[in-house]
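Tutorial handout. Part one gives the primary structure; part two gives the three-dimensional structure as tokens.
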Amino acid sequence: MSERDLYREVVDEVRELVRREAKGKPPRVALSKEVAARLEQLGGAKDLFDAPPAPPAPTAPPKAVAETGPSYREQMFAAPVMPVRQEVTPGDPSDSLERIIAEVGGCHKCTLGETRTNTVPGEGAPQARLVFVGEAPGADEDRLGRPFVGRAGGLLTDIIEKGMKLARAEVFICNVLKCRPPENRRPSPDEVDCCEPYLIRQLALIKPTVICALGATAAQTLLKSTALVGQLRGRWHNYHDIPLRVTYHPAYLLRSPGEKVKAWEDIQEVMRLLNGQIPRPF
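Part two.
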């Protein structure tokens, strides 16, 4: 990692710390292992962020300065100030799905950045009329960097291709989280808070006709609700003037095959709206 990249990561994390404190959230600095190790050589990352400035060292004789040169810390903070990367807002004309993929690939806003194998930003048609939103990548998704490719992904593909008579490439598939939680545990609120802006930007760019939320985490995140899937399904919801339907996650359907009938009812309602067989609810 170059000094320029090291400095940029430090600046970005300081900005994230200020943003979280402004929202009244617990402060946290998440640095990559390489940057943390480099800062440790300078006296530790904690020193760099929290400690008061050290008293100035005695002026060294000119000969000593010429021989040793400035320290790494002095070089880093004497460098020209880098322009701070501006946070992109949903609908920004400069935004793109490719830009989101690149940002997700370098994201370390939460600890999942240290445990993932690959990021899973999502895939599909950039102007898809239908977007499926799931919870988080699993082991297969983490290994391949693609959403819904395991057993649950196979069931979702069957729903799309055999049930809806669409090609998987015609829709867009993504998750609330772009990295796999260890042991496939439920995403924490803090992880959702860090990752949700990427999802919101994706939906703002795609502008789908319909969103289908798969499972509790996706539904609760988009609808800002604590209700269970069984309470949210069976009716239309409004997500920024986009009709949203909630159904069960394919992984849940594999464990509870008796609920597939209800899930198919939800999917049929999505198809009716896509085909113009029912009026747009909003």
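Part three, for discussion. Strands lie at 123-124, 130-134, 172-175, 210-214, 237-239, 242-247. The chain has 14 helices and six strands.
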